[in-house]
Design brief:
By secondary structure, the chain is an alpha+beta fold. The protein has helices at 3-38, 44-80, 83-89; strands spanning 94-95, 98-99, 109-113, 120-125, 131-136. Strand 3 and strand 4 form a beta hairpin. Helix 1 packs antiparallel against helix 2 (44-80).
Length: 140
């Protein structure tokens, strides 16, 4: 799996949202507020509505930037905490190709797909619920 391509896809999706949602709402709100001020007669309703759209546009841009950072950080964690990391960090819990939980020692491990376009599976202890490591989908 090309992790750099996945990162670029995440970035491009958030950039598209930022341009469409944030910039459009920001500009549209500004124009409505301006129309409320310089129109034939002063319209407080248009001014307030435009100001609300303008603020909403600013919040969208800021919120999308924060979500983008969180998504990239989450993907980096999924990439970093893989089976090799678990084997090197907890060698006593990987013996003869068998994995056990580092928390309770149980050998019952559940595997589930994470979804949300991460393309990873979570390996979790069935006994205590501790997440052990992540693997790319298809490489179980």
């Amino acid at each position: 799996m090309d992790y750099d391509q996945v990162r670029r896809n995440i970035y491009n999706a958030f950039l598209f949202q930022k341009c469409i949602v944030g910039a459009f709402t920001l500009g549209f709100g500004f124009l409505i507020a301006l129309g409320g001020i310089v129109g034939q007669s002063f319209s407080a309703g248009l001014l307030i509505f435009g100001a609300l759209l303008f603020v909403f546009g600013l919040r969208c841009i800021k919120g999308i930037s924060q979500n983008e950072k969180e998504q990239v950080a989450r993907f980096a964690t999924l990439e970093e905490k893989n089976f090799d990391w678990y084997r090197n960090s907890f060698p006593e819990n990987v013996q003869s190709g068998r994995v056990s939980c580092r928390n309770c020692g149980s050998r019952r491990i559940n595997i589930r797909g994470l979804g949300d376009r991460t393309y990873h599976c979570e390996h979790k202890c069935a006994g205590c619920g501790q997440t052990l490591y992540y693997s790319p989908e298809g490489n179980l």
